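ok trying again, last paste got cut off:
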Amino acid sequence: MKEKISVGIDIGDSQVVAVIGHRAEGETHPSIVGVGLRDGSGMRRGVITDVEEATAAIGGAVEDAERMAGLPVEAVYVSISGEHISSTNNKGLIALTRGREDITQDDVMRVIETAQSVTVPANREILHVISRMFIVDGQEGIKDPVGMSGNRLEVDAHVVTGASPFIKNLRRTAEQAGVAVASFVLSPLAASKAVLSKKSKELGVVLLDIGAGTTGLVVFEEGDIYHSAVIPIGSAHITSDIALGLRIGLDLAERVKVEYGMASPITLSDNDKIDLSRMDRDEEQVVSRRYVAEIIEARLAELFNMVKLELRRVGRDGMLPAGAVLVGGGAKLPGIIESAKEHLGLPAQLGFPVELKGMVDKLDDPRFATSIGLMLWGIDDEETRMTFPTVDITSIVARIKGIFSK
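nice, full thing came through this time. structure:
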């Protein structure tokens, strides 16, 4: 029996996560067979800033995942984000061959190619062309036109582009780490594949991938992608604010955020204190936990207001019944869901990877949404499927548990 293997690598600003998954013939849901995590990434706001650090982090994460899965990693699906990402909706049109009755898959591919004709500057390149709906002889709302009859085929597509220099640097760094990039996938788009249900996409939903340097968002409506964007604020900005507010170093500020941070000061009193000397022997301050929460609250308000403005720009502010789904390391801050509800005026919840096998509790975490989504993206990518001999899932799951018990 053969199995389909896929590898996703999420290169964030603070951590690299590699996930290897497989799906056996006849199975619906894939299993995780290898996981690798390395702190540090040589990235800042989605852009490579330290090639040596990035190469080491990617290579180390992949090596750990390979060792666990007992399989060599070749082509991988890599996350991409950053302020250089932009998107637009564009239409493509072709005339169908007369005398032929049915629309074919080749026709669909041709019309999608015409949607790529959107004007792209010389220093940018297309990352995604995703069909939103097809139109046959003026009839709109068609999901799959194959087998239908008509004279004219149109597609309404979502086109995502990125800056060529940044994309080339990311590809070169991955190759230096010993892996070939099968495809780059916009981070929130990958995460949406792991956590969003078909029903939420039909109703209307926005996914927010809160990373260290940026926050990616993707909007779905009627089952199709509606909009995507990257906002230049992430959880590292909160850390910087705490460092400035308390006049402490960034490493200590990160610990304060993780161990004592809250998205709102409403439940805290002035008597709630943080003794910094217990965290750093060079510090003598005793600071107000409420003050720290006020710092966090201000930055989150800015982030969610920018999300709200982005939704308003595309006419979907307050118009998404399934609300907001939050993923990424920054989504784990206590009280952030209530903050999102208040500022966005939408229902909100954390997003957890769904419909996977071979999982352990430690992987059931919003920060793994993108890496798992990348793996799922690869499994569903018809053009890059890879098959390998059957592997021993029981022993692999045991090794996954072992990596988190150390």
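cool. The radius of gyration is 22 Å. DSSP finds eleven helices and 19 strands in the chain.
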